[in-house]
Amino acid sequence: MKVEEFDYELPEELIAQTPLEKRDESRLMVLDKKTGEIEHKKFYNIIDYLNPGDTLVLNNSKVLPARLIGVKEETNAVIEILLLKNIEKEVWECLVKPARRIKVGTVISFGNGKLKAKCVKEEEEGIRHLELIYDGILLEILEELGTMPLPPYIHEKLKDQSRYQTVYAKEVGSAAAPTAGLHFTNELLEKIKKKGVNIAYITLHVGLGTFRPVSVEKVEDHEMHSEYYMMDKETANLLTQTKKNHKRIIAVGTTSTRTLETIMKKYHKFQECSGWTNIFIYPGYEFSAIDCLITNFHLPKSTLVMLVSSLAGKDNILNAYQEAIKEKYRFFSFGDAMFIKEEK
Do 168 and 55 reside in the same domain of the chain? Predict the structure, then answer.
């Protein structure tokens, strides 16, 4: 299968640069995954498509202010790093720009030395393992010195950092937001609960996979980077009961989808667990955990477009994307939403 098959032309003006004032007033395209039928709604209408007994699964990972700009100690050259994941103790996997300047032993200083990072290992594709050196609590230092790691296609500065977090973000550790969840407000979640829909939380810390383009020609040759996930007992029991009752499991975002499918593939049931996943979902994949998906509109030729194509069919997705372009939907992280539905 060729990566080119997942390409489409997107006018640049449709890439959302800032979030809407009200989270749940973004647009919602409803796509029937069996018929390909499309409806145009507002996100707050999502409640009309959720049934009592369904379970909505949200990724409660919280984004670290993981983008840091510092200087190389020997030369004062400006270096930008993005913390991707904590490997051990104070050693982090980081995306470094310009990486060619950072060799083993190089020290980068941030905030006049309040935080230092020493390179302990060189990897490919701009990745370095950096040992962080500091006094105090790392999260507090990052909140002072770091900024939200917005994707490269967003050129506007984010006025309110909290808008790149979901309202239910809790477990700190992501290098990017699970953006499908950005549309929910606390009020909307309360209304959904009152309708009798269950709300469950899992955690998947978003890592390099989000930033890394597909550089191979054949889909099957692409390798995903691994990301850390967790599911607690309460969520596992709730999802098991949902399946037993023949109700729908609705994943919010591709991160929730990948976590649920990883667990189901590994254990053939939902259970309390944690681990690392590099699951790559593309057409031909057979879903065993989720029924429906709430997601955003994704980049051309990305692993995310491949994932939604595997759920709804490539032709249905590419047709829906053309419709979204025609109707001037907003795309990517701060853009509008899509609900891929199936009735049971």
Answer: yes
